[in-house]
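Onboarding guide, step 5: your first structure request.
Type a short instruction followed by the sequence, for example:

Predict the 3D structure of this protein.
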Amino acid sequence: MPPALTCEIARMAPADQWPTVMVFQAFEQAYREEAQANAAPAPGDGPAAAEHAADNDVWGEDAAGSETFDDVSRETLSSDVEGAASAGDSAGDAATADGSASDEAAAPPALRPADLRFSMRSLRAARLKGVDFHPKVADLVDAGGPDATLEFPSSEDLDEAFSKEGLVGAMYPDFEARSEQLAMAQAVRRAFELSENLAVEAGTGVGKSMAYLVPAALTARNNDITVGVATKTNALLDQLVYHELPALSDAFAELDPEGGPLTFAPLKGFTNYPCIRKIENLVRDGVGVRVVQKKEVSQAPALAALLSFVEQTAYDDIHSLKIDYRALPRYLITTKSQDCLRHKCPFYGAPCFVFGSRLQAESADIVVTNHSLLFRDVAADGGLLPPIRYWIIDEAHNAEAEARGALSLELDAEAISGIARRVASDEATRNVFVRAERKAASDAQGGMTPVVGLAEKARSIGRDYAEKAARFCEALKMLLFFDDAKHGRNYETVELWINPDLRTTATFAHVRATGAELMAESERLVHACQELVGCLEDVSGMAAVQREIASLALTLKDHVTSADLILNQAPEGYAYAAVLNRKKDKVVDKLQALLLDVGDKMNETFFSRTNSVVMTSATLTVDNSFETFGQAVGCNRGDASRTRTLQLESSYDFDRAMTIYVVEDMPEPTQRPYMKALEELVVLLHRAQQGSMLTLFTNRREMEQCYEAVQPVLKQDDLRLVCQKWNVSVKGLRDDFMCDERLSLFALKSFWEGFDAPGSTLKGVIVPKLPFSKPSDPLSCERAARDDQAWRHYVLPAAVLETKQAAGRLIRKADDEGILVLADKRLLTKSYGKVFLRSMPSRTVKVLPMRKIAEEVARKLAE
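The system replies with structure tokens like these:
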């Protein structure tokens, strides 16, 4: 750690947390090692002397004389550390006097910590020394163009790569060739070569990550272009970035030393990275104290860890930083896109975590991002990601929902009331107009300036905005009048479909009227912001204030656009919803315009602008057909011949490993005896399997009712059962489940997919009810109003895919075994039941009464 940084941490830390002398000793050792490593050459040694001087400057020593660092440097040593330094110097002098020191030529320079200065910019410069970027943007733009000639891997190249002696074989000592994996890799290769889209359903065990990464890497390296990979979950993104891609890069370096390693980069949104400007402000302001659970907690440990993180990492995201965010909230150390100063920030470019990661991505062979950023880039018509023409979308069964989220609009009462509190406040820490006014008045020594006048005008409009915002939020809450008891009074949140009839009511007319008043005030405030931003353009020291005001104006403009579309225009392409909280004092309500046909928009703005998109998941087909998926995401719109499909069964023997039981003697879910029968079934199965069960509910009330009845009974049998109740940590439940092989869990939506518990940790999954969406869901209501077959076109396929996801929790390794129990009798009484069963990964399906199922499970366990 650089000595100036160590010194800074010593200054921050209270004595009861880090003894100053202890930290100083670490600082002294670092200083001496650095001095010895960079022993100053004799004068006149030319370039070496200059290099040594540059090293000292990078470490922040004598930075006051450096023009580069002067604007961000400052002295940071506390009097305690100076005292320790003096003692150290005296001891060193005495040692020299009595002859115990080594020869003078080898001794480090005299320790002068008071001369040290800490600089965030120098800290980043030291960390990024030697980092170079070679953007591929020009190649990307031309890739696949009419005059481009790209070199794609051949079929033989992939045969070799997936052999014992090839790339994949070099990665795994116990490598075994899998025909399904090679078939998928060849399909990806052909899709890239022929500029086609590809949808691949690859069952568990196929090894789909390597099946797409290898042809993607070969294509990128052969043509000096970037291939993009997008995942839904951070878990898979991290798996690729920290495990799969480093191993593949090492294999390339081993088998093709001249070609060098594979380059790759993760890319996430702004708030995933630390903001160096904000961190510098925190350091400048000094260590603060926050009240956490009625106790004062110093920010020093968190801030010290943050500084160490900035010094040790190039562009890691903040998720790898383990600090107490109660003491140092994330909003203090990250920034949103609209709040970033960009070119006006002293850290803009390579030193910045956000823009540095983008420079890194533009130079990488493989960029790994998430669905959210990919589809926000689509919605923004580009600019958030490099112009990548070859994409792989993993976990693609989530693509439609993620794209809809990015392409839809909303008007959020919580965001509106937040702005109202800020612009009506007289506190400079909250109101940017107050900060602008006070800074301008201070610079003018109390006199009037254009900035002061415009800031006062904006503050006045801000107070009017706050009044109109309160009226609108109150009006929005009045829509609860239309809340139907059928929606379930046990939930805080209700979703209302804003249909044509509701739009004609006096209540909605009041919402529209108060909304119009608020938007008129918003436009006045936008104009005031624009005047202030223009006036601040040439005012020094106001860049952060200017950017915050500009950001506020952009947010208000978005609100005006959303309000006009939802309340007035109401175009045909959307379903309209009001999401309301039943508690009158909770201002978290919102109006939404949900894009109905995501596929049409995706075809227009994404697929038509790429050369090839590969979409893959373990769950894309319904009854062995890709038709629903293709329509949903739009890859079979327009030139449908551009999209091919491939369905690969698991490399594991699912027919042997998974037995699917359909409970024959269960009542229908709508019948009164259903809950009693479910409780009996759950007890029987847990006793037979001796725990290690996951029961996936679709309804919180039913889950908690069943838990209250079943848990005491199982406890008597020494079987532990936990439940995903309100405010219970999902991560905590996952960790507990993984640590206790006999633990069983009742869970909701967050456990239906993405939860892996291989081995004996999970031996059985129970699905009490088929996961059909609520009939009152606004999207479903709008679809039903337009299409008399909407249930079969949308609700049924979604439920089938979700049930396939539930089944996928069970078998994660080749030697896993388990049972899937489907307790919904509609599988036997309704025609669509066969669609569910034909879509399951195992063909071993048994229809038995619940006691017979329990007896068979217990017998297998005893074998």
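Each response can be followed by summary notes, for example: Residues 3-127 form one domain.
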